[in-house]
Design a protein that fits this description.
By secondary structure, the chain is mainly alpha-helical. It contains five helices and two strands.
């Protein structure tokens, strides 16, 4: 079974679980791509992973599965899994819907001081 939550994608490391045996591998191709991207692209990737990690953390804290979240949102488990990979560009609308479904803030924006 492949665990594909973004929490396992940090630093290009993928975690595979085969019959309770954990094996860690570094993906050199992703490392190479990361070296060639612009600062804006890197920030977007980091933010996408951070948002996905936040959702994963909330699901874990609530004892919820991706399937249960998908059901609450009227989405497929596959779609929610794609969101939580950290590679999907979530819209503000989707982030808001997930936040309401989980009853937790996903993104917190500090108030601007004038």
């Amino acid at each position: 079974m492949l665990i594909f939550c973004s929490k396992h994608l940090e630093k290009s490391t993928f975690m595979f679980i085969f019959a309770n045996k954990k094996e860690m591998r570094t993906n050199w191709m992703i490392d190479e791509v990361r070296r060639s991207i612009t600062p804006e692209m890197k920030l977007q990737m980091e933010m996408s992973v951070a948002i996905a990690n936040r959702i994963c953390d909330i699901l874990e804290a609530k004892g919820m599965t991706q399937k249960e979240l998908a059901r609450k949102l009227g989405k497929t488990e596959t779609e929610v899994s794609r969101w939580l990979s950290g590679t999907h560009n979530l819209t503000l609308s989707t982030i808001s819907k997930v936040s309401v479904a989980l009853g937790e803030d996903i993104v917190i924006i500090p108030e601007r001081k004038n």
